[in-house]
Structure formats: structure tokens, C-alpha cells
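Q: Please design a sequence for this.
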């Protein structure tokens, strides 16, 4: 009997083709590179699925068509966007103004944010400012300086260290302003109870903020490869969902519980500042909730493909955002590489769990990141795998203590002191591990990021997955 493809397979093939086309356009590949990549990806998908796809050439043709549609959509998006922008490059003859549209990211040498330009100009502008000046989401700024064209297609034009003056406050979306203000108040509460770096790390793990973190701790997080503990929004959202599910199940109708959880996730995304990593985690969590509420099976493969395609539709340049790439590569590793490793080690389900499982999850999540991290940062510290094993078991406890301190510290000071004491001990241990592995020079360098090495590396991972991935894992995922 001839095998018929499920609607989910069609949808995945179309979404994957669109993503490949948009990525190829972002990277400015030639037509031959695009066609070769499309044939290679399509062929590998057919092989790993181990079904009668070889008889279904229609899906492969649709896949190829959507690849080229992705290339077309990328250029269409740029043309439509440029038609709506009113930006004059070079030295501006008059002051212009705009509203801070993203939460500023502050480092030791500068801070950066996106500015939504107001008439007579229009569009968005990437702004670099000195770190000593304080700006917030929703501030209306007047600027004077030189606007530089974008460095790559799809990126915003930029202005570096202009003359800036705040002319008004509270010009952003009111709910996002309130939630960011609440987050700032919680971080201040942490600082009342804990030393600087302990409070900052607790705030980062709980709320995803690096505010108040010393330059030394930021450098240690980067050198040890543990910066992800600040931006692991999938974990944070899962903790929120589990906590609300445990508190509300049996007390309210199931769909009401799911609606409350979905609203809580949306509010958390607004509080996080709406980064690409947070949006990815929020959309995938919403797919999982929708599947559970409707009684359907959650397919992580399709959820991930639809999430990425939706984000690429909204902004094709997101596919070359480093946060987006690291987040999706890590999820791919957990979905496909982890069961392949477990199968290769012949691990039975009854033997899974504990430190061994944490070690394998860390390995599977981080191996796909190596070429991306090397290309972006110049190195990848393999000590991060050991650091993750030592810190991973304490992350749920850290977030639980942070949430408890945020909700009780301002009301019950004695309870806040007890919780803060426990949270401080855990955070101090995590900081010690981070700084220890930051000093270990076990890393791969820039030569690992060349195109040929990258292709060989991912080809080896794909071959390993193809050989060891259990066939039941493919259908379930």
C-alpha cells in the first residue's frame, strides 16, 4: 500500500523550505549554493524519516519551490521596508527625534538600543551610546549626529555616540513599560538583600536581566560559555507553566487554566523585553499549551519550524541574529541529538535521570553551537559542558528562590531574609563554578569557524543522528 504523507509533513516541508530560502538570501548565497543546499537538506530529511518519501516527489518539489519563495520574500520584505523608511544617511543637518523601542543593553564600554524614528524621519535606528547615560524603554530622545547605512541586508541603519537629549518619558506601550518597571523594582529588591553579583545572577536566572552585573562576572559568563543561564527563556517559561498548572489544576476548568498560563507567558515575554530567544520560547510553549488544551499530540519538530517561519515572516533578518541561532540550534540538539546519544550509549529509560542525564542534555544542547559561537565570538569554551553539569541541577532551585524572594521579600522582611540567605548561598556557588571554568583555556578558536570545517562538522553530526536516532523518536518528534 502506498504511503500517504500526513498534513503535518507537508506543513513542515513548506516551512523548512521557506526558512532555508530566507537564510540563503540573508547570507547572499549564489543560486547554485541555494539549489545544492535545498537538495542536500531534502535528501537528508527523506533518509532520516525512513518512510516511502522517495515515492512522494510532490513534497520535494514543493520544498524546492518554497526555498526560492523564501529568497523572493526576503527581497520583497527589504523593498517594502525601504519604501516605508525615511532615513537620510550621513551627517544630519538638523536634530531629529525618536522613541526608545527596546530595552537598552549595557556593557562596560557602550549601551545599545533600537530607536523608532518619528517624522520627518521614519523607520528604525540602531543607537550606540556611552554606558554612563541612563535610558529606558519609552523615552523620547532628540539626537544629532551621523546616520550610517546598515552593514548587512535587513539590519537597521546605525548611529554611534550622537549628541542626545531626553525630551519626554512614557512614550512606549504602557503595559510593557509597567512590566519593565516591575522587573526593575524586583531587581532592586534583590539588591537590598544580596551582594551585587549574587543579586544580579539571581535576577538574570529568574527574570533574564543582566542589570547590575559587574564587568568581571559578565566576562566570566562569556569565557565559561555560561551566558545562556541568563537567556534560557524556555526553562523560565516551563517553570512558570508548571507552577501555575500545579496551583490551578482541579480548581478551575482546564481551558481556563491554559488561558491563564498563556496570559502569564505573554506578560513574561513583555517583561523580558521581547528578545528573539524569548519570543521563540513563548511561541513554542503556546503551541504546547494549545495542543494539550485541544487534546492533540504536540510535535516539537513542527512547532519549532512554524515558530521560526513565523518569526522570519515578521522579520527575515532574525535568522542571522546570534540569539536566534543559538536558541534554535540548542533546541535541535535536544530534540534529535540527545536521543541519538542515548541510543548510542544503549541507555535504558529506567537508567535515565540524575547527573548522567543532565550531562547528556548539556552535551546535546551545546555541540550544535560550536561553529555558531566560534563565528560570532571567536571561540567556544568546552568547559561550559562541565560547568553546565555542576550548575544545571541548581537552576530550578535558583529560579524558585528568586520568585519566592520577589513575591515575599517586600511584604515579609523576615521571610525575605531567610529566602535571601538560601538564594545567596546557591548564587555564590554558581558564581564560583562560573569563574573557575572561565579560567580554563580549553576552547576551539577561529579556524574552526571556516565554511568547510562548519560543513564537515554539521555533516558529522547529521550522520551520527541518522545512524543512531531511534525511528520511534522521529515519529514522536
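A: Design:
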Amino acid at each position: 500500500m502506498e504511503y500517504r504523507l500526513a498534513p503535518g509533513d507537508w506543513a513542515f516541508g513548506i516551512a523548512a523550505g521557506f526558512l532555508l530560502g530566507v537564510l540563503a538570501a540573508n547570507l547572499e548565497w549564489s543560486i547554485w549554493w541555494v539549489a545544492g543546499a535545498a537538495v542536500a537538506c531534502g535528501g537528508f530529511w527523506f533518509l532520516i524519516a525512513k518512510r516511502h518519501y522517495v515515492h512522494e516527489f510532490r513534497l520535494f518539489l514543493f520544498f524546492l519551490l518554497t526555498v526560492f519563495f523564501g529568497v523572493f520574500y526576503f527581497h520583497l520584505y527589504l523593498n517594502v521596508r525601504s519604501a516605508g523608511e525615511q532615513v537620510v544617511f550621513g551627517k544630519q543637518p538638523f536634530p531629529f527625534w525618536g522613541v526608545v523601542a527596546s530595552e537598552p543593553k549595557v556593557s562596560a564600554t557602550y549601551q545599545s538600543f533600537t530607536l523608532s524614528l518619528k517624522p520627518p524621519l521614519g523607520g528604525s535606528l540602531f543607537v550606540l551610546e556611552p554606558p554612563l547615560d541612563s535610558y529606558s524603554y519609552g523615552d523620547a530622545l532628540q539626537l544629532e549626529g551621523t546616520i550610517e547605512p546598515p552593514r548587512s541586508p535587513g539590519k537597521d541603519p546605525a548611529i554611534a555616540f550622537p549628541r542626545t537629549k531626553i525630551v519626554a518619558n512614557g512614550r512606549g506601550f504602557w503595559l510593557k513599560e509597567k512590566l519593565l518597571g516591575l522587573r526593575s523594582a524586583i531587581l532592586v529588591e534583590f539588591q537590598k538583600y544580596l551582594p551585587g553579583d549574587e543579586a544580579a545572577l539571581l535576577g538574570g536566572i529568574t527574570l533574564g536581566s543582566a542589570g547590575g552585573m559587574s564587568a568581571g562576572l559578565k566576562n566570566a559568563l562569556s569565557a565559561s560559555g555560561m551566558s545562556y543561564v541568563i537567556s534560557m527563556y524556555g526553562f523560565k517559561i516551563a517553570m512558570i507553566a508548571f507552577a501555575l498548572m500545579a496551583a490551578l489544576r482541579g480548581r478551575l476548568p482546564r481551558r481556563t487554566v491554559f488561558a491563564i498560563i498563556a496570559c502569564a507567558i505573554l506578560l513574561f515575554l513583555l517583561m523580558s523585553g521581547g528578545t528573539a530567544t524569548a519570543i521563540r520560547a513563548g511561541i513554542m510553549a503556546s503551541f504546547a499549551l494549545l495542543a494539550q488544551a485541544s487534546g492533540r499530540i504536540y510535535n516539537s519538530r513542527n512547532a519549532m519550524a512554524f515558530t521560526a517561519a513565523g518569526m522570519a515572516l515578521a522579520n527575515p533578518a532574525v535568522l542571522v541574529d546570534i540569539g536566534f541561532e543559538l536558541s534554535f540550534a540548542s533546541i535541535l540538539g535536544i530534540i534529535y541529538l540527545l536521543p541519538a546519544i542515548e541510543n548510542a550509549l544503549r541507555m535504558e529509560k529506567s537508567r535515565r535521570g540524575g547527573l548522567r542525564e543532565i550531562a547528556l542534555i548539556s552535551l546535546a544542547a551545546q555541540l550544535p553551537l560550536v561553529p555558531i559561537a566560534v563565528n560570532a565570538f571567536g571561540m567556544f569554551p568546552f568547559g561550559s559542558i562541565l560547568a553546565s553539569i555542576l550548575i544545571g541541577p541548581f537552576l530550578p532551585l535558583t529560579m524558585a528562590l528568586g520568585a519566592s524572594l520577589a513575591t515575599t521579600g517586600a511584604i515579609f522582611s523576615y521571610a525575605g531574609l531567610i529566602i535571601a540567605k538560601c538564594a545567596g548561598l546557591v548564587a555564590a556557588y554558581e558564581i564560583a563554578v562560573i569563574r573557575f571554568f572561565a579560567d580554563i583555556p580549553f576552547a576551539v578558536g577561529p579556524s574552526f569557524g571556516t565554511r568547510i570545517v562548519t560543513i564537515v562538522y554539521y555533516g558529522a553530526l547529521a550522520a551520527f543522528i541518522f545512524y543512531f536516532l531511534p525511528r520511534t523518536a522521529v515519529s514522536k518528534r
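Q: Thanks. Anything notable?
A: Residues 21 and 70 are 4 Å apart (CA to CA). The longest strand covers residues 111-117.
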